[in-house]
Amino acid sequence: xxxxxxxxxxxxxxxxxxxxxxxxxxxxxxxxxxxxxxxxxxxxxxxxxxxxxxxxxxxxxxxxxxxxxxxxxxxxxxxxxxxxxxxxxxxxxxxxxxxxxxxxxxxxxxxxxxxxxxxxxxxxxxxxxxxxxxxxxxxxx
Length: 141
Known about the structure:
Elements: H1 2-16, E1 27-32, E2 35-41, E3 48-51, E4 61-67, E5 76-83, E6 88-95, E7 100-104, H2 106-114, E8 120-126, E9 133-140
Parallel strand pairs: 3-9
Antiparallel strand pairs: 1-2, 1-4, 4-7, 5-6, 5-8, 8-9
């Protein structure tokens, strides 16, 4: 009987210290010309995306779909890309949290090939908020 009580106590102690994860997680997906190349979520540390330059052709589009559990169908959404020196390279706007934000990836590859940029960072924000969410760090190889 003591053994059963001890096992139940240990189980209850362990369960009370378990890490609770949210039931809904904000996530985003990155597409290159309609093909999903990577998915991320808010629990990831150092989200990084590496794209092979040989797979990119003129006119390729990078598209980001951002999803969260409290959608806003009419708020302005923004995607801003910075280089490794924190210079803004491009900005894309949309309407609503489920709208896709896209741009020509050649805008980044052109900068990559002519300058000594090591990476780009993609940030998302809504309603002109000062809080930018890092979606991923983009590197080319």
